[in-house]
Amino acid sequence: MTQISNPPPHRPRRSCLYMPASNERAMAKAASVDADVIILDLEDAVAPDAKDSARQAACDAISARKFGARETVIRINAPDSIWGQNDLRAAVASGVGAVLAPKVTSAADIAAIDSAMTAAGAASDLPLWVMIEMPAAILNITEIAAASRSSRLSAFVVGTNDLAKEMRATSVPGRAPFLTALHMTVMAARAFGLAAIDGVFNDIGDLDGLEAECAQGRMMGYDGKTAIHPAQLAHCNRIFSPEAEEVAQARAVIAAFADPANAGQAVIKVDGRMTELLHLEEAKRTVAIADSIAAAAN
């Protein structure tokens, strides 16, 4: 497996829009939507008889850089499916920003996908994202996250729809049946330095419900949310963006620790608040994301 020594820089992943690669109209629209990440889907959103043409369409779009500076991801079919390995090889060759693999359940799955990426000629810094959507993945979440130490694994994407199906659970406002899984996933991601992206909100017309779920996900610590329709993007972007006061406080923390008067101090007072070095790390992350959002808007 491939050891990644330098994690990718902080970048906004407030909104990650799934686009079915079999839908030409949707693919064309994706070039202009305000999503931080475009996920071209070869799996759930594509019928079996359209898998091959969807793969080609996705890879052609990536190779032609139709999505500009946005982060691009291809969600492949399960690696052990009849399409999975062809999907993976084509995605690697396309120049995509990351490969998203579904249905993982163990660290062994991560090792196998990473080895397949290497065999396909993937660069050592091509990120692997994985769907966390199976009960076994939740039970094995720590070992899966720990596999990032010796692989390309860099992000978890929660698949609440598949999780609901596998659990035989009911999706309800507040997501009570999935709170344990959501908390365990984000904690494992944070323990091993991975990005964590929340699951989709299915009711496209219920923007109040979407906002509530975005706020819940941010409160838990998720970096952003997957979306199924462009109408959801503005809400995801707003709620997962650092607030102005938060950014101002982060800049104040960075400046205070950079002040020669505070050299060597582990704990200082910033605007009347006791502030430790651990707050400096989070402040730098907040400012980096805010600056990236501002740069993309200009």
UniProtKB/TrEMBL annotation:
<feature type="domain" description="HpcH/HpaI aldolase/citrate lyase">
    <location>
        <begin position="14"/>
        <end position="230"/>
    </location>
</feature>
<dbReference type="GO" id="GO:0016829">
    <property type="term" value="F:lyase activity"/>
</dbReference>
<keyword id="KW-0456">Lyase</keyword>
<dbReference type="InterPro" id="IPR005000">
    <property type="entry name" value="Aldolase/citrate-lyase_domain"/>
</dbReference>
<comment type="similarity">
    <text>Belongs to the HpcH/HpaI aldolase family.</text>
</comment>
<dbReference type="InterPro" id="IPR040442">
    <property type="entry name" value="Pyrv_kinase-like_dom_sf"/>
</dbReference>
<dbReference type="Pfam" id="PF03328">
    <property type="entry name" value="HpcH_HpaI"/>
</dbReference>
<keyword id="KW-0479">Metal-binding</keyword>
<keyword id="KW-0460">Magnesium</keyword>
<dbReference type="InterPro" id="IPR011206">
    <property type="entry name" value="Citrate_lyase_beta/mcl1/mcl2"/>
</dbReference>
<dbReference type="InterPro" id="IPR015813">
    <property type="entry name" value="Pyrv/PenolPyrv_kinase-like_dom"/>
</dbReference>
<protein>
    <submittedName>
        <fullName>HpcH/HpaI aldolase/citrate lyase family protein</fullName>
    </submittedName>
</protein>
